[in-house]
Amino acid sequence: MPDLTLNVTEATFPEAVLKKSEMTPVVVDFWAPWCGPCRQLAPVLERVTAQYQGQIILTKINVDENPNISAQFDIQGIPAVKAFRDAKVVNEFTGALPENAVQQFFETLLTSEADKAATLHTEEGYRKALELEHTHAGAILGLARIMTERAAHQEALTLLERLPATGEAGQLVARIHLALEAEDDQAAQLALAGEYTQALELYLERVRSAPDPDAKKSAQDNMLRLFAILGDDHPLTKTYRRKLAGALF
Question: Is the pLDDT at 245 greater than 50, yes or no?
Fold first, then answer.
């Protein structure tokens, strides 16, 4: 069998791995000549790579000769295998796995038809991806963004129910709820305009003083939505979480 493995160095890594992975998944085998398990794994990686006929690229990098790359990717033991797609690590394992396990690892790297449709970044592409894969996260988020911009809020919320309410999905849900209230609510208008401090102050005052328990709960919920939009590490989130706790307890 011809050698299917491209030797990579720190100098060639950006082009041979990161740039190349924008078009084709790239598997990197971090190894060293003295490593017995590395020598055991190498022919397994080559045999599996050959089965994919160019759909996946196999490379290897000598950790002794390229210590900076090894440190950058926190290589603690070898062989360490990392798979890159779009210049990011998308899967990895350490040790000399059996061939069937390596095969399964490679299978995770192939782009599905749903992935291809979603990468069009159009409404039609996202809808096609969701026909093929009902829970495709990228398509759900992409279509929900489009629907939110179009003010088709209920469709966006229905889509986002398929995902955990965290990260961008949680932020979109929060923005949609604020948008639904913004027509006749000053605090929601301020929040959507990016005037977060003023919005949080208004909501906090309602939590403190609203005689109606429902109004108090609504203000609390909207503060939590703003925290989701801002993120846990934002100074306003930290400040107003403490103020909200003080107002409630």
Answer: yes
Options 16, 27, 38, 159, the catalytic residue: 38
Overall domain count for the chain: 3
pLDDT band at 105 (very low <50, low <70, confident <90, very high): very high
Q: Looking at residue 52, which CATH number applies to its domain? A: 3.40.30.10
Q: Taken in order 92, 93, 94, 99, is the CA torsion positive or negative?
A: negative
Domain for residue 174, yes or no? no
User: Among 27, 35, 143, 223, which one carries the catalytic annotation?
Assistant: 35
Would you call 35 a catalytic residue per the annotation?
A: yes
Is 152 in the same domain as 206? no
What is the residue range of 71's domain? Answer: 5-107
Average pLDDT over residues 162-167: 87
CB contact burial 79-91 (16+ within 10 A = b; e otherwise): bbbbbbbeeeeee
Catalytic, 38? Answer yes
Q: Is pLDDT above 80 for 2? A: no
